[in-house]
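REVIEWER CHECKLIST
Item 1: Sequence provided? yes
Item 2: Single chain? yes
Item 3: Sequence as submitted:
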Amino acid sequence: MTDRITLPGVSDDDNRTLNLLLERLAAKAERNRLRSAYYDMKKAVRLVGSVIPPQYWRLGIVLGWSGKAVDILARRCNLDGFVWPGGNLDDLGFREVWEGNNLGSEVSQGAISSLIHSTAFVVNTVGGEGEPDALIHFRDALNATGVWNTRTRRLDNLLSVTGRNDDGKPTSLALYLDGRTVVAEKDSSGWSVDVQEHAYGVPAEPLPYKPRLGRAFGSSRISREVMALQDQAVRALIRLEAHSDIYAIPDLWMLGADESIFKNADGTLKQSWQVVMGRIKGVPDDEDAQTPRADVKQFPATSPAPHLEALNAYAKMFARATSLPDTAVAITDMANPTSAEAYDASQQHLIAEAEGCTADWAPYLRRAAVRALAMANGVKAEDVPAEWSTIQPKWRDPRFLSRAAQADAGMKQLSAIPWLADTEVGLELLGLDAQQIDRALADRRRAQAQQRVTALAAAAQAARQNPAVTALEGNGGDGR
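Item 4: Structure as written out by the authors:
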């Protein structure tokens, strides 16, 4: 149960909304922190059974499989920018929005948080003095939540906790409502509130991973199955570590020997490692004993293969659960693909996951981009031009194609449609990135300008050398 917050100067309805969202945030906090711990490799597995000595469970052995499952997918979901078939985005100031918000990197960070916690949120605000005209921020589900309206398919509100004290309690927050934003900060004297009105509805969007009916904010990629398999694999590693110390050394039984051979000269027992690591041992005979000479029985060391096989089995099950190729996590029995077709086949499930992610995120990022352009240009949400609806995010192909393969495929397409070669799309088909396309087009414009200057200079030179021809051209060519 969270402490109730009552903001001064705010209506009872808005305070109820605030506390409802705080309770929702607190209810999901434990599971969200757990998934963050798996991603950050800070989750220790529980001690299971009493066969393995406890000190091996305290070694801090971890696996980064959960983080890898998130990162590998996120690295295939790259936003290259936005396109507007009906116009020029630079005329609307989009370059300033992109660069001022470091949008390429911020979208990648939002994607990672979305995969970890099932959703992240993107928030638009009008910039202040010394800031870009339009700001775009991303918030993770540990610090933001909202109410989803299934009819309008938009957020009815969003709470973003922007500061906490050492106990984790909010000290600053922003509550985004329809047409107004409540910004509050707490100091020693209590809460101070600033209510800002605007014309952009609720200026926030979710970025859900695998949304479905009844679960609009999606599901985490670090599922219960993923966490269980990682725990099993870590336990297999711990057993392997203990095996290396305990069972990898041959087991010896000495029959008829006196324990004095295990003692130091002062009568104290030798350390275990001294007994095990000693290479030359002398066992004296005892003629008075029933067995005068000690008999040594040796049992061979056990192989670690069962532990490795178990670990590999968990790795393959983990790969299946996360749509990763076996080569991403398995440690044995794997060979690299020998052809491009084999490589594509091994990655097809991951590629499908990446395409699904970008398709789910695209409409919300489009809304955020259009809203940012409206803010930057002083356009109200209700006055946004209809032609802006064609602005769309442009995602990089999730397939990792070689430059040679991409250029070859592009040449075949340009051969079928030659006029595409004179467009930016044609250069993209050849595998050039946005920076290379901009440089190529700029160089082309400079070359064309130089050609025009050269042609004009040649025409002027010709006119100076043939003034009579110029005079004839000036009076119609009839000599008058």
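Item 5: Key structural point noted by reviewer: The first helix runs from residue 12 to 39.
Item 6: Recommendation: ____
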